[in-house]
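sorry for the late reply, my laptop died twice this morning and i had to redo everyting from scratch. anyway the thing you sent over, i finally got around to it. pasting the sequence first so we're on the same page, its 421 residues, then the predicted structure underneath. double check i copied it right bc i was rushing
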Amino acid sequence: MSHELTGQIFAIMEREMGDIGGFIVKKQCMLIGSDPNDIMPGDLPKLASNLSEVMRTFGGYEKARKIYSEIKKLENLDRVIEVETSQEKRNSMTEDLGMSCIFSAEWDKAFEYFNKLLGEARAANDPVRISRYLRKLGFIHNERSEFDIALDYYEQALEAADEAKDPKSIGQACNLIGGIYWNKGNYEQAGQYQEKAIEHALRADDKKILGSAHIGLGNIHADIHEMKEAIAHYQEALTYLKQTSEVYEIARAYNNLGDTYLHLKDWDSALAQFDKCKEYAEKGGWLNMKAWAQFNSSEALIELNKLDRAKKNLDESLDLLNKIGDRVGLGGIYKNYGRLYAAKKDWTKMSEHYRKAIDILTEINTPISLAEAYEELGLALKSKGDGIPAKEELRRAANLYLHLDLQKQLKRVLKQIESLD
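ok and here's the structure:
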């Protein structure tokens, strides 16, 4: 029966992802300690959660929902939980199914699972578990971009963690609250909570929280163009994360570090970080992060006038990200194609690719990246000698930077606009 189940899981992923489907299953089985050649029913809650997370990351809720729905047809997952004799394992499996529902946007069912767990934790008067499940409920709202509601849950989670005097739970809640304030553009509050997360994570000796909080601080400094401070935090994050098995977070830190070196125009250092990002992404099977590192490296290669290699990296990344449906990554790829064709002075293709990037970044609502795309297009048009269209694009960038209260970027763009008068 288990061998039949194994074949069915592989078939599901291969139908959706082609030749990389089996690779993804094997990687996720290894990460959860399951035999990829003999998947058992008891493995399914955790495996479904991991595969749903991967598919959500690769291609959004629709892909995750399709995979999770097909896995549910193979086994009654709620029944798998019921027959488990250990209460601790039952809770863990229930949480896994809750996370699968979050990744596949089955919000009502996700609320059902985590509210059930929260009720049990409250009945047991266990503030550590109460804090945990409040964080999960907040995460559901965070995924729905309901940031104020998510913040309310995270603050309740922090209260429960404070009641328990549990530094790990306090650190986790502060890290999440910091992320909300970062999303809202409140960098001062975000930084305060990430610092508090670090303070309590040090007490708990939790390397994962320390790494995540330092990435959070790095992102804050990068957003306000304090690049040296950003680098210091990303490097600190890596110091902690390399003591864990969090390969995705390690890859993410290297990617962010490489991006920071790009802003400093230190092309060789950027390429070195992106190579490390690819290395760790391959270890964890995170094909999207591997593609990100590859297309981000193209920016440095363009600046080093290695245009053929840059185009090869972009073409390979585009093929992979189209397969997995990563819209955020595609927006970044098309921006880099714009840079490539600007360097080649192929103005038609330059404009075409920047427009594709702008369309995607508008669709997925990433205002900082969108502002940067408008700015780059404006500067490329300026270098071409098209002053009036250049002004239009730069003004769009300026309006976004003004809305985001990013004063350094705003002043930089206004100076470019003035030079065209």
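The longest helix spans residues 147-164.
thats about all i looked at so far, will dig more tmrw
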